[in-house]
Predict the 3D structure of the following.
Amino acid sequence: MRYNQSSDDFSRFYVKDEYDRVIQNTYQALFLEKDTILWVLARDKELFRYDICSDRNTPPLDSFLFDIDIFPGYDKESRRLKYFFGVDGSKSPGLEIISIDDKRSVTGHELYFDGHASNSPILNIHTVFYDNDTAVWLAANSGFFRFDLQHNKLESFLLGTETPKKITPFGESRFILSDFKNGLFWFNKRNGKFTKLFAGLVDDPDTDLNVLLKQPYYDGSGTLWVENNDAGCVFAALNKPKFKSLPKANLFNGSKNYEFRNFVVDHSGRIWCGTFDDGILVLDRYGRVTRSFHPDLAGDDHLIDKEIYSLLIDKNGNIWIGTAKGLAVLPAGRSRFQAVFNEKGKAVKSVSFLCQLNNGDLMASSLRDGIFRIEKNNAKFQMKQILPPENDSDFFTYIYESRPGEVYILNGYSELIVFRYEDRKLFQNGKFSAPGLVNGFYEDINHKTLWIATEGGLVKMDKTDLKANPVVFTERNGLKSKLIRSLLSDKEGNLWMGTTNGLSKFIVNEERFINFTLADGIQSTQFDALAAMKYSDNSLWFGGNNGITIVEPDQIHFLQEPPIVQLTDIRINDLPPEGLQDEITWATNLTELKNIHRTYDDNTLSFGFVAIDYSDPTSTQLKYKMDGIDEDWVLLEKGAPGFARYPKMPEGSYTFQILGANSDGVWAKDPYLLKITVDPPYWRTLWFRTLVGTGIFMVVSLFFFLWIWRVREKEQLNTRVAENKLAALRAQMNPHFIFNSLNSINGFILGKKTTEASNYLVRFSKLMRMILDFSRQPFVALEEEIELIRLYLEVEGMRLKIPFSYDIRVSEELDPFEVQVPTMVIQPFIENAIVHGLSSKAEGEGRVEVEILEENNQCLKCIIRDNGIGRQKAAAIQAQKGRKHQSHAMEINRERLALLSKGTGMTFTFSVEDLTDNQGAPTGTQISMLLPYH
């Protein structure tokens, strides 16, 4: 079967036999060669070659005798298969080898170590690992072997009683071997040596996993996986440990239930370990016990007490011990401890701490009797009291000399007293309170800052100002546990602390903590008080519940590979979703989701996620951010499970980002990205808004068109009303002119001027026909209007007694036949000029001039001039004659022009100007008029 990642499903394939029949069962995939040729075992141990590209297989190439395990032998560079090795483990002895040539054909089938040859050992082989033709490694019941195929030579590497079953390659030069009963071993191919690989659970160090470990697998990324009958599948990050650990050695009675109290190194490099209630152990550089001191042990060492409070090796090589029963010394080169008494010859009880000052003086503190100086008197050592307790509450422990002559002594649980040491006496300089029991000191090279390890945190004290409040670093500042049990400095001046919750490093220049756990190789998270020392090679030794942790600061390497971030859970509206798949790839596997799409009512999203780091899963760290919602990254606590919930997410596009840090604090550079689209509700979708918008537009358009229709109807009505009104106004003018003309005809008839009456009547009838035709038209051609004016002037010229001439001029820019002007607007003004201006002219010929121009390409300007008597004199003549008739022509024309203005949106009007000569005498009248035209 083949798993398809893109579609998250499986495809099934079958091999066919030589008769083209499908083989239904007992398949085993042996080796994929160059990603094309799959070697398969099927049916009765038969070997086939299957082409995964063409879905075809060869007929059976060979069959195996042994079928418990079959191992491929291939060239690592070319990935070309050369051999198959078959074994039956403990069922059948021997090794079965099938050889494959360059053409992928079987060229040989051999059996080895089957017990038939006289010089061939009987091997029950479990695992075969092929290096090359001269190095085929065999793990068998009888040991570990290297087999040379070319020379048929077998070389054994015996472990003793151990019988390795599985081989796991680790790099180019080592194997990890597993034994079903004896655990794991390192094997160095170059020197042929074995080393025990200790195994234990991080969260349960006391559980011994070195038994029943089988089937190890190294994944190539630093993690070793092992099957264990009791614990299931366990794993270890072999690149993670940073420290060496020495397990607790057995006491003389076989017990390991003891607590370290002190470490000191003698001149030969041996480590003396004082225990709290089990005497003294002496270890070599590798942690092996070379000697024990205990009152119950038979011997002549005369150790005065098993409860060791303090150990000290002075500059002369003497070994001092402070115990509950008193002080003792083991002189250099001697093998027997000697008790040391006070000046009265009595033992000083509960000697809690020993210290040698820079000047060589030895000092000891007592829980009951104060501070003592150790002197040599008559070849014997003696304790001389130099600081007695002031009351019963005084009990002294830690003594520290920061610089020559300046001594710090801990009184009680937290009071530090600063003394000046002169003339072999102590003089108090000051005191201050520490936040807890003191378990270590370190002073910087400038002698300005003193660092104090307490069970209330790491204290930074300004030595230049003892009255200033010290700075205390605790869990708030990144320290794993403020209960500091021991303190050492490395050569860089950084501080290392054993605490009740692991090992911590404090980088002084940055004031930053780095915390280490069991996965880093420390022997336990519980370290013992004062059990720390610096070895001659600058390594730091810390004692704890399960042994000794050795820190080599220059050899510490941190994991640089960031963790793999994966989704573990997605919930929609707090429920597991059904049918969740990637929007683009359609993948349904949770780890392959990159794009998801949700509706507006599925908008409460929850995510579970992890940072995969098998070196120490509980120390990884995660942070996440939802672009579009979170302004900044949300940082989770170290080891906290990844979980994020976003309720009622608004519609839009988002990107959920996750970053992970491995257990050494190295963050991934690129985040895991999950693109999320939340649809808006239908009433906020584009199609719905478009539909609603279209509907609103249609309704508004309907109302608008109805409104336009009504406005147009109203305008048309108004236009018709205006036109009717204009027609009525024109009709008002026609009777006035007709009345005057009929009077003239009557005058000709009474005067018996038949010829004149006939000529007049002909012109008058033609004029009347034009007036009647024009009265029905709001606009006429300019040429027709001029023709009407000409006829009118000729008719008036015949009617009036005075002669007058006229002149009508039209601008060359105007085409009289194309330009349309309002009907009979000009004629009333000419009539007014003749009747009122020229008819009363006493002398000279009368003249009327009409000039028509274009004004700004928008309207016509019509100018009418006469050389009559002027308006003022005409009015006076009318008054003298006593005429009561008032002409309405001017007012009618004004109203007509106003109606024309309203219809066009422009202003059409006229103005009257009196013309005078240089002396101011009237010479006529000029009317200027603006008219619309088409």
